[in-house]
Amino acid sequence: MPGRVRRHRPGGRRPRRGSGPRAARRAGPGATDAQRVARLLEALRELPPERRTARFRCAVAVADPPGVAGGGQVRVWTFEGVLQGRILQAPAGGGGFGYDPVFWVPEAGKSLAELSLEEKNRLSHRARAWRKAEPLLVGLLLGGGRGAGT
User: Which of 41 and 64 is assigned the larger pLDDT?
Assistant: First the structure.
């Protein structure tokens, strides 16, 4: 079953400037992960914990080029994985990278940086998107281009 990629947040709110793939700009060019985390924590300093909601999103797009499945048109499916969480008031854990030390995962009861590799690979936004796309990919690869649910 195909997923959908949203171009903006529900309710019509657009992501704040500097969020998403361009988040590195917040602390300036060449900033380290630690500097970016420090900048984020400073920006959220006055925000109470219940308002420090955050999410990581991953979109996976699968394209079936013309001729591969016997048709003349490109077919495209998109899948989205989301990991909901909160931004901590201070880093916790020594694993991961980027914002992992300050991203609290409620369902795990710890930060991303405190998760084992196995836990992170099970819970991550990338893993969630992949699990949604996997049946289609298996169908396309093993089913002669027909795909799952096509």
Answer: 41
| Residue 100 near residue 37, CB atoms below 8 Å | no
Structural domains of the chain ordered from first start: 51-142 (3.90.950.10)
More confident: 144 or 43: 43
Q: Which two three-digit tokens encode residue 32? A: 């380290």
Tell me the pTM.
Answer: 0.72
3-class DSSP string for the chain: CCECCCCCCHHHCCCCCCCHHHHHHHHCCCCCHHHHHHHHHHHCCCCCHHHCEEEEEEEEEEEECCCCCCCCCCEEEEEEEEEEEEECCCCCCCCCCCCHHHEEECCCCEEHHHCCHHHHHHHCHHHHHHHHHHHHHHHHHHCCCCCCCC
Percent with pLDDT over 90 in the chain:
55
56, 124 in Cβ contact below 8 A? yes
Inter-CA distances, 12 with 5, 15, 57, 80, Å: 14, 10, 17, 18
